[in-house]
Design a protein that fits this description.
alpha+beta, Immunoglobulin-like, 2 domains, five-stranded antiparallel β-sheet, three-stranded mixed β-sheet, 8 strands, 18% helix
Length: 144
Amino acid sequence: MTSTARNLSKTSILAAAGAVILYWGVLHFKVLAANVTASWSYDYGPLPACSPARPTDCIDHFEVKDITRNDNPTPIQMVNNPTPALGKIDGITTKFQYGPPFGQVTFSVVAVKREQNGSFITSNPFAARATVTIRPRAKMSVLF
């Protein structure tokens, strides 16, 4: 192999390695991620929020999930109950980054109930859902 071919081969390998590292960095550090603000309402009348006075049979927290693939919902973020959490609360809000991947995504917010035995049960993920198109570096709001 000639010296020129060897140098070209080294350059190609270094360029490919650099591209892989750059791609990994973009995915890992969410450089292109969209900034999403999710908002919803919840009525604590039928089932109150958990508190020191009521540690079970109550709403412990909420979870925002990606339910695009029905067979594999992906948790995105846990959200604590607002303070105070009495009656109907409008505008419970959280912010998170999403992507890549980009494209059409279905988000869901679920209430998580703490049972008498300490186990957790989630509400129906299809009851409060929204389908949106995620674009790189976009700022978007999702209202459930």
